[in-house]
Amino acid sequence: MSLRQSTLGFIGLGRMGQHMAANLFAARPNDAYVVCDASPDAAAAFARRFSAEHPAASIHVAQSPAELAARSSTIISMLPSTPHVEQVYLSPGGIHDLLATLSAADAQRTLIIDSTTLDVQASRRVSQRIQTTGALFVDAPVSGGVTGAKAGTLSFLVGGSSAAFTASSPVLEAMGRRIIHCGEAGAGLAAKICNNLVLGVQQVVVAEAMLLGQRVGLDPRVLASVINSSTGACWASSENNPVKGALLNKTTPADRDYEGGFATALMSKDMGLAQRLAEETQTPIPLGEAAQSVYKEMAESDAESSRLDFSVVYKYLAR
Ligand code: NAD
């Protein structure tokens, strides 16, 4: 069995995790690797692909997050949302319980990086419990999507102590380009959720403007170029314009019938997280609430749109 100190563990090999793990492992060729996923097929398929590309690498598929934590001192997780993170770290027989059985020295040598986008308070609870064992923990949600995960150009928004941020930076640099320390535990998530609140609202209003403009006779390419060079400019229009063919020299999800990109279901989840934070802090977010109700109505009226890029909101409004 490989040394725990020189073994990297990755939990959650979905759309994002499989690329992040591949980049991280390739950047640390002298280490050993352990992977784990609730879908054993996903973990086994990743291990097969990685071994084919790196025949000398030592990679093991763990049967549980606890087995993974027993074998590796650096652990990264990329899970769907709050219940999955709570289950992996805090459920009986999960990672917290395993860390509590290690020697103090081994527990203190453990670094945990959770890159899931989840509820801020839930992440803080996980962070606190994990830190009682002596391990370091950061929340490090990402911006950049599947394209950024593949290219290793993600932005990581990190929450945790200075010591945990310093320890996690070299690991995150293997998977991303910008590593930003946002503050104490939960701060990375808070920043991520606020950013996606802006994005979620902007994508709806860009869809509204593109639809309105065409209905009064504007060519969508002319309208997009006016917005993109004027005060309405934003990513939702200049990179993710919801109208097919509106951007010259750029291919958007709209050009691919909204395939790929950031799923409406994930945007809706993130807007829900923003609403929850707003309720907890008694912060008014009327535009966020309005945009979230549009995404919700859309998903309820057409299940297919949940998996498509959230700019499909344009098609929904047009109908
Ligand atoms: P995904 O659903 O494709 O992958 C999640 C993986 O976690 C799956 O393979 C699933 O089997 C596994 N999993 C679920 N529960 C588990 C458990 N208890 N133990 C072990 N494995 C478990 O999701 P994704 O698109 O990779 O997104 C992951 C996170 O990244 C989400 O929080 C999402 O909001 C965030 N995110 C995604 C994107 C994107 O474009 N997809 C962009 C930015 C942030």
Automatic annotation (TrEMBL):
Pfam families: NAD_binding_11, NAD_binding_2. It is an enzyme of class 1 (oxidoreductase). Keywords: Branched-chain amino acid catabolism, NAD, Oxidoreductase. Its EC number is 1.1.1.31. Pathway: Amino-acid degradation; L-valine degradation. InterPro entries: 3-OH-isobutyrate_DH-rel_CS (IPR002204), 6-PGluconate_DH-like_C_sf (IPR008927), 6PGD_dom2 (IPR013328), 6PGDH_NADP-bd (IPR006115), HIBADH (IPR011548), HIBADH-like_NADP-bd (IPR029154), HIBADH-related (IPR015815), NAD(P)-bd_dom_sf (IPR036291). Residues 8-183 form the 6-phosphogluconate dehydrogenase NADP-binding domain. GO terms for molecular function: 3-hydroxyisobutyrate dehydrogenase activity; NAD binding; NADP binding. Coiled coil: none annotated. GO terms for biological process: L-valine catabolic process. Residues 186-316 form the 3-hydroxyisobutyrate dehydrogenase-like NAD-binding domain. GO terms for cellular component: mitochondrion. It catalyses: 3-hydroxy-2-methylpropanoate + NAD(+) = 2-methyl-3-oxopropanoate + NADH + H(+). PANTHER family: 3-HYDROXYISOBUTYRATE DEHYDROGENASE, MITOCHONDRIAL, 3-HYDROXYISOBUTYRATE DEHYDROGENASE-RELATED. NCBIfam families: HIBADH. This is 3-hydroxyisobutyrate dehydrogenase. It comes from Sistotremastrum suecicum HHB10207 ss-3.
